Amino acid sequence: MEEHTFMPPPEAPVFEPTEEEFQDPLAFITKIRPYVEKTGICKIRPPPDWQPPFSVDVEKFRFTPRVQKLNELEATTRVKFNFLDAIAKFWELQGTNLKLPMVDKKNLDIFKLYKTVHEEGGYEFVTTKRKWPVVARKMGYLETKSVPACLRNHYEKLLFPYDVFQSGLMTGGDTPTETKRTTKPREEPDGRMRKSARQIRQEQVQLSIDYSKNSELKKLQFLAPGPKMTAVCESDDVKEEKMDTSTSDDYQPSKSIKIEPAAESKDVKDVKDVKDVVYTEDESKYQRRRPVRKASKKMLQDHNPELFQDDYLCHMCSSGDDGQCLLLCDGCDASFHTYCLIPPITTIPKGEWRCPKCIAQEYDKPVEIYGFEQSKKEYDLQSFGEMADKFKSDYFGLPPESVPYDVTEKEFWRLIGSADEEVSVEYGADLHTAVHGSGFPVNENVNNNIEEFYANSKWNLNNLPSLPNSVLSHVSGNISGMKVPWLYVGMCFSSFCWHTEDHWSYSINYLHWGEPKTWYGIPGDYAEQFEKVVQEIAPELFEAHPDLLHHLVTIVNPNVLMSKGVPVVRTNQEAGEFIVTFPRSYHAGFNQGYNLAEAVNFATADWLSMGHLCVSHYRRMNRTIVFSHEELVCKMAANPENLDLSLAKAIYDDMVSMVDHESKLQQELKDKGVVQTERKTFELLPDDERQCVVCNTTCFLSAVICRCADKKLSCIQCAPDHCSECGITNYVLRHRYNLEELHGMLAQLKRRADSFDNWASEVRRSLDASAQAKVSLATLRELVTTAEQSHFPECDLLEEVKAAVAEAERCGNVATQLVTKKHRTRTADVLSNSTISPSLNLEELQEFCSQLQRLPCVIDQAELVQDLMNRVESFQGEAQDILREAEPNAVKLKQLLDTAIAIDVDLPEIPKLKQELHQCRWLEKVEETLQDTRQVSLDILRALLDEATMLSRKQDDFCDLFRVNVIAMEDKSDCLKKRSSMVWSKQKDLALLKEVAAEGVLIHKQRSRERGVQWQKVADNMSVMGQDITTRAVRDHYKMISKKYRARMAREERATGEGGAELTEDKMLLEELIDVEDETDRQMENETEAKNQRIENERGQALEMRERAMERIGQTRKRMGGASESGGTVQKRRRSGEIME
């Protein structure tokens, strides 16, 4: 494959799980399964802070790698090499060393010539139709006259004899290829038929001669037992037969006669001396037969004349004529005329020669599957890394880390497809962690908290196969490579060939460190198409080994597969990344350079059906299984309550088909006469003792045995082929469980598997119930609890019932606050100006009642809310009645407003009732004030006049009359001021200060009623000095004195930086009053600020409660989802895996 012709396949999907998704590897892999099943493999990048320490003891880590010859891995290249080996072996068995000829100044590709000729119809057809120029053109030669003839000559000389041999014309039987396809062992003929006719006759001669009676004949005996090859000379005297060492075509074999056996033995009367024939090294080199003793022909003929009738017979023409042209086989001593062979032989082979039958026997021997040799050197990580880096650096002429990945990839596939360029690399594969240690920390060797964290991590490959939801956790024992990880130490170009995992399970590979590993993957749905394409590309490899792809020794270029319609993806696995392969996904790849990875298998619930199919596939291929699938399923089915729901459903579906198939097969055996049965605990037997003798599967549910001496065991499917000696009625059916027990296990699994469906039906019935059949909130809570305890999977229905429970609980809390008044602080005065608003208005309360009716369940507070609604309706009726009255009673108004406060609902009648009550109270104040005008000040009247602005229009006339009276009193007051205004002096100022201090005016809040009353007393006390003075005049004069003093003190402090001169009595008194006033003002400010803050908080709470009360279920989910995102502690669930392109 040329470099520029390789086109990288599309990239495999890459996933980056969140911290939450990374907590459960099996759940995350199940989540992304719909995406990855379309590609077969995927890459997973852990969170950036997940970096396990490398825990292998580097100093003790030593291993012996495999040696890989890259050009022997590719399927079509290996077919070519196998063909060349077969041709070379064919000629070697006939005493000729194969040498490739030159055509057009380059070596002839005899494999391509062979394939091209056969594609055109074969040698005879091509020759008859004169298509050798077509063959030359297809092979890429220029169209010259000499090339087609040259190709024909070379084919006729080198390949046509092989064609004849393959056709079986010389052997008279099946072709070697057909023989090798036979799965049953060849039956050996009896001892006599295995011997040639000459050997049988020679044995008869040996038996007919009595060597003990003749000393000369004793010399003819051989020390070794068995038939020997004996030759005699034509002359009476024994002579040394010299061999002609010439290699020319006129070479003739030595004239010798073979002893023919006689029917009856006779006494030997005249036997002359016999000597050993001795050959030199050069002579024996070309000797066609072993050195033997030679006896006088006349001597033996006199003993038994019948021995020398047709000494050598050609196996083709059955004639012994023309002895100089007879070839004797060095394997079986059969003789053939050179011109009787097909095709005829014109020259005598120089080496050992085998007849066609002996050659066929050599080819009948089973061919060992291609495999990797072990290196002769043991490495540690340091020495292997130095070797790997030096190889890559020398090969590319660059530092190892500087070679681009795509350059390495294209060069790898170029070397894979090159038959002429041989590159060997080493790969430390399948290194057991039980021996060499795992790259992940393990609990037995942790030294700190970090190692302990990663030792317990679910992504630690030592833990992942045994997680609770992993099917392999139920497999007994630690299966190396499946449950116990293997390590892989790679170098540049070291590769792993196309394969699936054992039992078509999942696999996960983690690259601890080093340069990347390039992966190629094929979806599991295209596995059969991939196998078909590979068989079409290299059918010769599958003729002898139908299970070739199980041996991890064959690579096919991804571009070839893609051209045949097989989808392929690729990815580069960097250090710290995971590669996950899915069930029955063929995958292959190579290493970009020196690295170390670790891999293990695992299985989720969805694998069970695929595992069942795999066992059936292994049975057809006669492949030994790693563990019994039936045993695994039954072991899990024995404890269904401990199974995950999805796993229980998968086991049930798999076990149903398994039990149905078992029942059918047992019934067929009973119909055929098998009546003897016995129980057998198969799991207590070693696997080799419960292995089917026909298909090699491991038995568990049942097996068939017979009573013969072999005591063979076979699975129930292979029972018809179990034993040819015992009749089927003598079979004994062994079973682990009877059919009743199996159906009982199915019933338990059914209950567990259907628990989710039953729960889902109950949930749907509860959520869709009518108003009269609604369930309680407690029932919905029980459904949620059942789902959590049963480990039901997350689904929309579970989310819906959780949302319904949350909505009902929230409505219950709001209803409780409404009816118990725990959400706000009440005020004593119904006419206070508090800004706290009620929780709900009338429309919101009505909507809240409708929302309670729409809930899928009944809450206990619903009756209280309905009672509240009834109270609201009753209040509205009474309020409308009293508002219709001309002069409402203040007491009734007060009672209704108290009721409104207790209801805590913003009703439209409440402002009207407050207006009426305020009006009634104002009228009462006016009437009370006007009854005794002597104690009424003008300020009080003005305050009443200000309150009159809140009155309704029906009191406008009364307010106008009252306003006229107040104006008249103000005019009268002004006249009095003019007539008798207070003349202030220092003595009077001092008296005023003393009165203010004595009455404690300033300890009261400004503009409070209490301070107004005290100022009135001060004014009355000052009036005894002889002049009437009003409250406002007293207050205003004090403010003036205080203001002047404050200003003077400020000027003096700025001028001198400190206080003024010695204080007089009035100044001391004034300073004390100012301090009291300032302290009162500060307290008032603090109280005001606290009150405003409290009001603001209560307003916010009320608004929030109102908004929540009016929310729909969808709005609540949206708000809770937004809160989760902003809160940071609860992360929003991500939908199916987000693919990183």
TrEMBL record:
Annotated segments matching region Disordered: 171-200, 236-257, 1079-1141
Q: Which reaction does it catalyse?
A: N(6),N(6),N(6)-trimethyl-L-lysyl(4)-[histone H3] + 3 2-oxoglutarate + 3 O2 = L-lysyl(4)-[histone H3] + 3 formaldehyde + 3 succinate + 3 CO2
Q: Which domain of life is it from?
A: Eukaryota
State the Gene Ontology BP annotations. Answer: regulation of DNA-templated transcription
Q: Does the keyword Membrane apply?
A: no
The record's subcellular location field reads: Nucleus
Which UniProt keywords are listed?
Chromatin regulator, Dioxygenase, Iron, Metal-binding, Nucleus, Oxidoreductase, Repeat, Zinc, Zinc-finger
Q: Which Pfam families does the record match to this protein?
A: ARID (PF01388), JmjC (PF02373), JmjN (PF02375), KDM5_C-hel (PF21323), PHD (PF00628), PLU-1 (PF08429), zf-C5HC2 (PF02928)
GO MF entries:
DNA binding; histone H3K4me/H3K4me2/H3K4me3 demethylase activity; zinc ion binding
Q: Does the entry feature the keyword ATP-binding, yes or no?
A: no
Q: Where is the composition biased (Basic and acidic residues)?
A: 177-193, 1081-1111
Protein family (similarity comment)? Belongs to the JARID1 histone demethylase family.
Record-given protein name = [histone H3]-trimethyl-L-lysine(4) demethylase
